[in-house]
Amino acid sequence: MKELHFDTVQQFNEFYGFKTSHPLVSVVRCTQPMPVEECVVTYGVYALFLKENKGCMLSYGRTKYDFDEMTVTSFAPGQRIHVMPNPDVPNPKWTALIFHPDFLARTQLGQQMSRYEFFSYTSNEALHLSTGEIEIFRSVLDMIRQELQHAIDKHTRELIVSNIELILNYCLRFYDRQFITREEINHVTVQKFESLLDKYIIEKAAEEGFPTVAYFADKCNLSAGYFGELVKVETGRTAQDFIGDKIVGHAKELLNNQTLSISQVSDRLGFGHPQHFVRFFKRKTGKTPTEYRKTA
Fold first, then answer.
1. How far is the C-alpha of 39 from the C-alpha of 35, rounded, in Å?
2. What is the pTM of this model?
3. What tens digit of pLDDT does each residue of 244-257 get?
4. Is the distance from CB of 73 to CB of 58 less than 8 angstroms?
5. Backbone angles phi and psi of 257, in degrees to 5
């Protein structure tokens, strides 16, 4: 299988046949016939794509959307992406914002990139834009493009960084909207999470250890970041807190069985050491397991 490496903006532009106006930032649009080949792409840059048609495989189960076909996918340095062609769309069309992490060096945005968790989402968790959102997205890209065409001066970098931050913040807003408009699907996912969690605690925790968010995200075919945001929007709690509350509930049931020692309860719930369970339980309830037993 073909392997591609985009470690620089220049490498990306050369592969697709675009002119490089700035070595660290580029806004480009692909409209020329360029069939997609199956390949694995490794990114060394940030890439934000506005897909104008379904030129490669992107899906979210069998979900039907009330939005146009426009989707946004985002990739970060260090990610490897498996790209599959869509035989029904031989000529993909897309617009992309590509920027190197060095461009954000010593900027506030560079220090805050971790807050844009959608860079860790998988391609099947793409952002689906409404018509109004597409206009906003394109308008910010146009501002970056215009600045790249402007003669470089002392304001160039600051203005481009500001507009990159603006488009990333809009993506955060649009993802929040997507979580809300997918309320029914989110609810089903949380129900599945809760059911899997109960089953895990009862059947697997003793052998496999304390349940993790990543485990249940995988079972729901979602990335951990997207899964965590979904659970938070649906329940008002983080997935980790949701797991902790469930563990406490099961712990109380087990503690009510006076034949079980604190150590046995700890083992059944997947804690490596009883003292870890004691600290966890007290943090969650304000009482040690022994104190709880005396007042239960």
1. 12
2. 0.79
3. 999 999 999 999 99
4. yes
5. -90, 100
